[in-house]
Amino acid sequence: MDLEANRTLIVAALARIPGGDQAALQTVYRLTSAKLFGVALRILGKRSEAEDVLQEVYVTVWRKAADFDPNRASPMTWLIAIARNRAIDRLRASRQSRRTEPIEQSDNVPDSAASADSVLESAQDHARLHGCLDGLAAHERGALRGAFFDGNTYEELAARMSVPLGTMKSWIRRAMIKLKACLEQ
Amino acid sequence: MTDVFDHSGMSEDELLAAEYALGVLAGVERAAAERRIAGERAFATMVADWEQRLAPWAGEIDEVSPPPQVWNAIAAALPTPAPQRAGLWQSVVFWRGFALASALAAACLAVVIYLGAVGGSQPLVAAIEGGGKRTFVATVDTKRGTIAVLPATFTADATRVPELWLIPADGKPRPLGLLQADRAVTITIPPQFLGQTVSNAVLAVSLEPPGGSPTGAPTGPVIGVGKLTTL
């Protein structure tokens, strides 16, 4: 099934949830849970914790579906943000992030053509983000990756990359400014 | 030196939104950002825009099928279907949902109406609203001195609890008690506040630390207010 068809199905199902339609939530779950489970598992590392978080995510979707506005955001963006935030909440509540080893600052960028799946953003969006990430300095990209994929805090990133906290904050902020400017070109 | 970068093209608010969306904030900074998302539309939009910019990165993460028991747990956790749309105050479906969601509150209301009919005391109601949404619905039984509060679109918060306040004509909030996200709560109004629980007094709900406000006054964000009126 193609991306646009999936997106339409997810949006339509989300719109039925505020009316109390449990089958609609199940449709959203069927279409999106493998992606969101992957996201939670990546941040948390343990299947049992990722399963708990996935459950919280869809109960949150059930309660907050009325907040989703398809004219403002893509459904997967909205769902991924909920999954990342619930996983990060779990991480913050339990302990420090599981990934604390030093971040290599050399350019070991994963293959940007690796993905584009059936429910996420288009391959074009993915390629554009990757093009802009490739334009960042290696240390900036490494710090952003640690935050996005491992759920690291500023403190954890500073420790992993052996720089003072203030330096890490300015790296990340500078990287975000560059990223936005590049994406808006 | 960092100022040169921090203020070239992105405001301090937008940088904070970016940091939240990326996930690097922790502790009080993260909680503060979440409060602003809940209360400030412009800030929430900036966070959503950053989530949109970063989301394609998740394309790198492989899909992993969750085990079937996860859906079973979700299905078991869903409440009895309750409508959550705006404008539900006048809706027949809402009142049916109201009764289903809380036999307690409905029974209380019936008693109030009955007592009101025979005893001359009028029940008071308030729709507690904030951010364009009805968060709670409150019914005061003036005869018994109790107040029943039913959640409408309120969503639980992992770290804070909803607390109900009475704000009479003098504008000073009085604590009435803690509410629940998933069920109706009936609170006995403290005797000293009974005389102020009257038509036109205001009810407000704020988010407080577990156990309620430590100061006796609201310390967290107010997520809804509503005026008491006679039914």
Task: Annotate the secondary structure layout.
The complex is a heterodimer of chains A (185) and B (231).
Chain A (H helix, E strand, L loop, with lengths): L2 H14 L5 H23 L2 H18 L10 H20 L28 H12 L3 H13 L3 H7 L4 H19 L2
Chain B lengths: L1 H5 L5 H11 L4 H13 L1 H14 L13 H10 L14 H10 L1 H17 L4 E7 L2 E9 L4 E6 L9 E7 L6 E5 L6 E4 L2 H4 L7 E7 L13 E6 L1 E2 L1
Antiparallel strand pairs in B: 1-2, 1-9, 2-3, 3-6, 4-5, 4-7, 7-8
Helix pairs in contact in B: 2-4, 3-4, 6-7
Description:
With 185 residues, chain A is mainly alpha-helical. In chain A, 68% of the residues lie in helices and 0% in strands. Chain A is built from 8 helices and no strands. Chain A has helices at 3-16, 22-44, 47-64, 75-94, 123-134, 138-150, 154-160, 165-183. In chain A, helix 1 (3-16) crosses helix 2 and helix 6 (138-150) crosses helix 8 (165-183). The longest helix of chain A has 23 residues, at 22-44. The radius of gyration of chain A is 18 Å and the shape is globular. With 231 residues, chain B is α+β, with helices and mostly antiparallel strands. In chain B, helix 2 (12-22) crosses helix 4 (41-54), helix 3 packs across helix 4 and helix 6 crosses helix 7 (103-119). Chain B has helices at residues 2-6, 12-22, 27-39, 41-54, 68-77, 92-101, 103-119, 191-194; strands at residues 124-130, 133-141, 146-151, 161-167, 174-178, 185-188, 202-208, 222-227, 229-230. The interface between A and B is large, with 75 and 56 residues.
